[in-house]
Design a protein that fits this description.
Helix content of chain B: over 70%
Largest sheet of chain A: none
Distance between the termini of chain B: 175 Å
Oligomer: heterodimer
Largest interface: A-B, 45 and 38 residues
Number of helices of chain A: 8
Strand content of chain B: under 5%
Number of domains of chain A: 1
Radius of gyration of chain B: 65 Å
Number of helices of chain B: 4
Number of strands of chain B: 0
Structural class of chain A: mainly alpha
Order of helices and strands of chain A: HHHHHHHH
Mean pLDDT of chain B: 85
Low-confidence stretches of chain B: 1-6
Amino acid sequence: MSGQLVVAQDLPWPPSVGDFYPPDVAGPWVTKFSIMIWIAVALLIIFFVAAYRKPKLVPGKGQWAAEAVYGLVRDNIAREQMGNAGIRFAPYLTVLFSFILLTNIFSIVPGLQISPNSHIAFPIVLAAISYVMYNYVGVRKHGLGKYLKQSLILPGVPWPMHFLLIPIEFLQNFVVRPVTLALRLFANMFAGHLLLLVFTVGGFVMLGSSSVFVQATSVFSFAMAIVMAFFEALVAVLQAYVFVTLSANYIGTSLADEH
Amino acid sequence: MYLAAEGAHNPILPIWQEMVVGTISFALLVFVLLKFVMPRMEAMYQARVDAIEGGIKRAEAAQAEANKLLEQYRAQLAEARTDAAKIRDDARADADGIRQDILAKAREESDRIIAAGKEQLAAERATIVRELRTEVGTIAVDLASKIVGESLADEARRKGTVDRFLSGLESTGAR
């Protein structure tokens, strides 16, 4: 039945994974996704460099916006998660935050309408950097042995419990953390795009139906698509915040002196 | 294989070219921003904190200074008031004393003048009375001698007749 509709309307219904892989623009290196990534990088560099070309004590609009992002990450994420020692990570976390935020917002930007982060390759890269970073920071601060001991051995536990706890802790700190970091961001953006597809494309499919009743119902589908677009904006900001906050938290636990 | 045949990619498997692109582009972004923008941003952040905290500190110092000055002025004012009151009191006391002195002196002077006048008056009166008495006696005796024809002068002087007469006159005059 749905096959008939697709044929009739030439719309990809139902939305599928294939929708996330548009044809390459020019070979595997120049795809819509890689172009979007370069656009995001260019926009961020232009924005920050322009805003901070001539910084003033009393900021202008652009400088104020750049500093608002930096201030949010510096005070509400870095210092919140790591204390005053974490402020030195604030610059990197700010870049990370603005990059994820901008690429997430692409999911509701007309013309782009999909987030690069719905391809797991990009979240994997970002999570890997955070993974390397928090382990490196921990090893450098405590030394490899002490860092591993701190990460794996819970203090104040009867020793036989360690047979159970050490594998769990290992899994937790060295496997689950980076994987969930990447998967969470990817899955949110993937699902968000899928939701938007379902309601927008679904609306068009209903509009193309032969039944007047189904055609009228398509209004709700479009309304839902609009609501979901706002929801997607919220998710975009939230996921950027969560990713950066968790990265900061992991670095913070590596820096901490106790488990 | 199934997915590839469908022309779709397993979304859980990353496309390695994308990972390369992501790594390079993000590394570029991080490099540029961390090198050229973020240090200045942190410096500006610190400068602003300094400026604000410094401003607050300066304001507090100025406030303290102003309070100190105010206290000082108040103390000085109070001191001046006490001084003025003291001077006024002193002046009033002085003036009182001076007035008392002057009054006393004046009273003394007037008393003295009055006393002197009275004395002089009394002395003059006594002199006049004395002179008058002799004169009246002489005149009376002369007149009587002329009338009687004989010299009564010695007799009258001897017996005090004239004095007695005059005393009688006085006493009737006084009555």
